[in-house]
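Quarterly update from the structural biology core.
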Amino acid sequence: IDADEVLDNVLIEAILNWKKNTPQPAAFRRMTNYCGNFIRHGGWYPDIKIRLFNKKLNQWEGTIHENLSNINKEDVSVLNGHCLHYSYYTIEQHYAQADKFTSIQALDLFNQGKKSPLFKRIFSPMVKFCTDYFFRLGFLDGKSGFTVARISAYATHLKYRKLHEHWVSK
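Predicted structure, tokenized:
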């Protein structure tokens, strides 16, 4: 687990039971605490993360939100309980993380030869906000849900703007 995560008692018990049986890859439901409130909607929950696996057979791949190699998702069981993720204590931390991550994402996309047309820079943030806030029910998380959806949309804007800037400066 990461330094900003804590396992609840139900998940600890599930892990102990998992270890007693033939261990197949297993995942946790991660529930994020955002500025003092747990987020239960908006695409942030259930944030299922594979955390138990054979490290001789699997490796992390990617730069942000890494994936595991050689994992058949149908073989992964999701354990009961929650991994409590204490991500952001302030909105400013969220903006700073969005700035950092979007720089990495934009460079990755640029290196893959991806482009950032104007329509994508304009409409992708709106689609992101509507998807997270309305369709993924972020509004049920109140003010925190609105803030998460708004900053996620802003991060989408930043990613495509930075990607565009890579191409302009090339």
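The first helix runs from residue 9 to 20.
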